[in-house]
Amino acid sequence: MNDAPRKIVHVDMDAFYASVEQRDDPALRGKPVVVARRGLRSVVTAASYEARVFGVRSAMPAVRAERLCPDAIFVAPDFARYKAVSQQIRAIFLRYTDLVEPLSLDEAYLDVTNVRGGLPSATATAEAVRAAIRDETGLTASAGIAPNKFLAKVASDWRKPNGQFVVTPRRVDAFLIPLDIGKVPGVGKVMKAKLHAMGVTTVGDLRGFEAAVLVARFGRWGQRLHELAYGIDERPVQPRRAASQVSAEDTLREDLPLAELTEHIQRLAEKTWANHRCKQSRVARTVVLKLKTSDFRTLTRSFTPQAPPDSAAAVAAIACALRDRVNDGAGARYRLVGVGLSGFVDAAEQPLQSNLL
């Protein structure tokens, strides 16, 4: 095993979707921009830094964003345009290393342990990547540089926007010990509250608990927490990671009973099938139905037919059949529905099928 530490860069675009909108429409520059459709059931996709000053954040209900920032300019998302810019940025990454692991359209890990171009350090590489993004796309990015993915991701948030932060192997403890526990990826509001109840407000506090105690309390996640508390993360950067699922989901305008979800399921099946055909060269074998109840419980059902679905109609038919298997009481209402495809295999492994359903 190579004992030399990896050199990982986490690049995170600054308010990506909102920044693309501001770049492409000069009238939006310097204004509080919220990427979302207006409506009671709409959710904020992104917010410019001018909107964030008012407390607007992604995943927030659009109506709340409007209350917080009455002067916000709402722009409907244009994912085709964002994807095109993301591909341009990814091409920049690949000039410096083949080891690029995209996490979403606006962030990625780069392993620059062996970097191209004769740059002297991972820090210099991050600077060059960010400069190329700025010069070629007119957008800014922030970066974290560290010996592993966990530390690099946390560090990339340290000097946002348009900055970078380095955590060297020697400074891992100094960086981690005072770190707010809520900054650890995977520690959301619920987990943070549970840790606070144990007296854990910083990563240093977390180190006061043996791994066995954390495992007994949180299961496998407890072991992971123990490792992260000491900056341990052995996950490699995985380039060209194939999607494990292609899906589409919608939060409904009003909570609906199961019987009234058919049209929504059919529409989402068409969207999922189109995404699958555009993005995947492999064959999906499994159809997944996701439902969220009015009290925010999430239900999932899946089915793998003998032959893979070969059309949007086939996906919709299976998803509706999965819907009919849900037994959640006559009064149950649902606020979100999603349809997905998973279980991908290479096309060469599947015989051609027709007239499946």
Automatic annotation (TrEMBL):
What keywords is this UniProt entry annotated with?
Cytoplasm, DNA damage, DNA repair, DNA replication, DNA-binding, DNA-directed DNA polymerase, Magnesium, Metal-binding, Mutator protein, Nucleotidyltransferase, Transferase
Which reactions does this protein catalyse? DNA(n) + a 2'-deoxyribonucleoside 5'-triphosphate = DNA(n+1) + diphosphate
* Xref: NCBIfam families: PRK02406.1 (NF002677)
Name the UniProt record assigns to this protein: DNA polymerase IV
Segments forming domain UmuC: 8-188
- Gene3D superfamilies in UniProt: 3.30.70.270, 3.40.1170.60, 5' to 3' exonuclease, C-terminal subdomain (1.10.150.20), DNA polymerase, Y-family, little finger domain (3.30.1490.100)
Which cofactors are reported in the record for this sequence?
Mg(2+)
Q: Where are the residues marked Substrate discrimination as a site?
A: Y17
Provide the top EC class: transferase
Organism encoding this protein: Salinisphaera aquimarina
Where are the catalytic residues? Answer: E107
